[in-house]
From TrEMBL:
Domain (Glycosyltransferase subfamily 4-like N-terminal) ranges: 19-175
Entries under InterPro entries matching the protein: Glyco_trans_4-like_N, Glycosyltransferase_grp1
Protein name: Glycosyltransferase family 4 protein
Record's keyword terms, sorted: Transferase
GO MF terms, alphabetically ordered: glycosyltransferase activity
Keyword Transferase: yes
Domain of life, source organism: Bacteria
Source organism (scientific name): Methylobacterium soli
Length: 352
């Protein structure tokens, strides 16, 4: 198939990934190409040049409009809308079999756009006002909508999801997150360093248990980092930087427990399955989809119970490493995910 992939534009779709949406789109383009598809990635122009890139905007907008993602800035909105509108026109005229839409934009969801192109839209966020109505109004023939978890589907459609909405769990390549049969006794945390990811809670829990903890990921909110995280560094708490690929997999895989501390309704939890693939059990907070994703591979506690999170670390350390690894192989591999994507493309094309 000739497939158009439409990405979010805040960051480039390139390593090291700024977050899960960038990792998702990169893995999707890479995986579909490996399965023989002709893929064009419509993304920020400074995305990974190994892909065939059709730039929606020349550079990711965090560079030209820093810090304005969630502030309703009129200049940023106009810039992004113009880019997406022109990209949708090129997709409609580009001879594509299907569009896989991963953008947080209303424009690919317009009825006239959906009539032009079989579309699969993957929702990576909880519902919010600027997008909710356009999503619920877009369920027309030829449009398939996916969410990343049962939990996320319930949040979007509390009265029950309509036909055309399905759960598409994310997947990782087990070969890229190699299993290790033992850890070194330390804890690890990975993700965007920002309050909603709960980095400070992981630090506090590790300090209470005395277990060494290494943090990995981009510093998204500098004030939060300087006030809540940087003062805690030293001794058993360290920051390992923003790594990707084999380097990050190696660092995570050598740990004995992964701390997963979302402070919002996390739609999935990519970082959790990356650690689980390496055999690292999870101690964390039961927020969003965490319980659905982690299952028997960890111990989760209520978000407002700090002592329980400390106990969860000890409980998770007792889980055999084969258990999280086996859960990923059963439910969350890249091959399972990509096969499901291909099936959804087929459904969209047949219904269009």
């Amino acid at each position: 198939m000739r497939i158009a992939l439409l990405a979010h534009l805040r960051h480039p779709v390139a390593r090291p990934f700024a977050g899960g949406m960038e990792a998702y789109c990169w893995a999707l383009a890479d995986g579909l190409m490996a399965r023989g598809h002709d893929v064009v990635l419509f993304a920020a122009g400074d995305s990974d040049p190994r892909f065939s890139i059709d730039p929606v905007i020349p550079l990711h907008h965090e560079r030209s409009f820093p810090g304005l993602e969630h502030r309703g800035d009129a200049g940023l909105v106009a810039h992004v809308d113009a880019g997406y509108a022109a990209a949708c026109d090129r997709i409609a005229a580009g001879g594509f079999d299907v569009l896989h839409n991963n953008a947080l934009s209303r424009l690919p969801l317009e009825h006239r756009r959906l009539a032009e192109m079989p579309t699969v839209t993957s929702l990576h966020v909880p519902p919010y006002d600027a997008l909710r109505w356009f999503v619920t109004d877009s369920l027309v023939p030829g449009h398939q909508i996916t969410v990343t978890s049962q939990s996320q589907r319930q949040i979007w459609w509390p009265e029950g999801a309509p036909s055309g909405v399905s759960v598409l769990h994310n997947g990782v390549d087990p070969a890229a997150w190699s299993f290790r049969d033992r850890g070194d006794g330390s804890a690890v945390w990975s993700g965007r360093i920002t309050p909603i990811k709960g980095t400070h809670l992981a630090v506090a829990a590790a300090q209470r248990t005395g277990i060494p903890l290494t943090l990995f990921g981009p510093i998204e909110e500098r004030d939060y980092w300087e006030a809540r995280i940087a003062p805690q560094l030293g001794g058993s708490i360290r920051y390992g930087g923003h790594l990707s690929g084999e380097a990050l997999a190696g660092e995570i895989g050598r740990a004995s427990v992964f701390l997963f501390t979302p402070c919002w309704d996390e739609p999935f939890g990519f970082v959790a399955i990356e650690a689980m693939a390496c055999g690292v059990p999870v101690a964390g907070l039961a927020m969003g989809a965490a319980a659905e994703i982690v299952g028997e591979a960890g111990h989760l506690v209520p978000p407002d119970d700090a002592p329980a999170l400390v106990r969860a670390i000890g409980d998770a350390l007792a889980i055999p490493r084969t258990i999280p690894h086996a859960r990923v192989l059963r439910l969350f591999t890249r091959d399972l995910w990509l096969a499901r994507c291909e099936a959804l493309y087929g459904l969209a094309r047949r219904a269009a």
